[in-house]
Design a protein that fits this description.
With 182 residues, this protein is α+β, with helices and mostly antiparallel strands. The chain has five helices and seven strands. α1 runs antiparallel to α2 and α3 packs across α4.
């Protein structure tokens, strides 16, 4: 976007664009008033789109818990990503399924929700599937937190039935994951 703005109006306009929405009436009035009063030479500026800053990963929990070694090992096989941190893992037993566990992964991955969280959970499930531990998993969940905010939670209720095959339709694989309430 190219804008031509006169003298003092440039500073007011830039501050107005950075600090407020352009639809805020008092900012629009201030810019209009400054432009009307200013008679200095015309300056041409080009405002480039800004890249959002990377999230502050220090807001991720430092709790690592004991975790399950097989689950932690499965996570470790994924490509390293500085914006994804494994916080902990947990297994939960169910009296209706003796000898089986629900596997829960707790992550800090700002911005990862909905389809992206399901796709990441699928990659994690693919790493877990070939391990002996996977034979004991009836359900797998991935919970994503950033600071105190829950970004998303997904669960595959029937881990044993799903293969998470790379040959399967992406939509069908995503459908094996349900969104859980935050």
């Amino acid at each position: 976007m190219k804008r031509t703005i006169t003298g003092a109006a440039l500073a007011v306009t830039v501050l107005g664009l950075v600090a407020c929405s352009s639809s805020t009436p008092d900012v629009v009035e201030t810019v209009t008033a400054s432009a009307a009063v200013t008679t200095s030479k015309t300056t041409s500026t080009t405002m480039a789109p800004t890249t959002p800053a990377a999230p502050d990963m220090t807001q991720c929990s430092n709790h690592t818990g004991e975790g399950d070694p097989a689950m932690t090992a499965a996570f470790a096989t994924l490509p390293s990503d500085p914006l994804i941190k494994l916080i902990s893992t947990q297994t939960v037993t169910d009296s209706d399924k003796p000898g089986m566990v629900a596997a829960i992964f707790y992550l800090c991955a700002p911005g990862m929700k909905d389809k992206a969280l399901k796709d990441f959970a699928t990659e994690l499930a693919r790493q877990l599937k070939p391990t002996p531990f996977a034979d004991t998993v009836f359900s797998m969940s991935v919970y994503n937190f950033f600071g105190k905010q829950t970004i998303g939670k997904v669960r595959c209720k029937d881990f044993q039935v799903n293969t998470f095959s790379t040959d399967a339709d992406v939509g069908a694989v995503r459908a094996s994951w349900e969104n859980l309430p935050n």
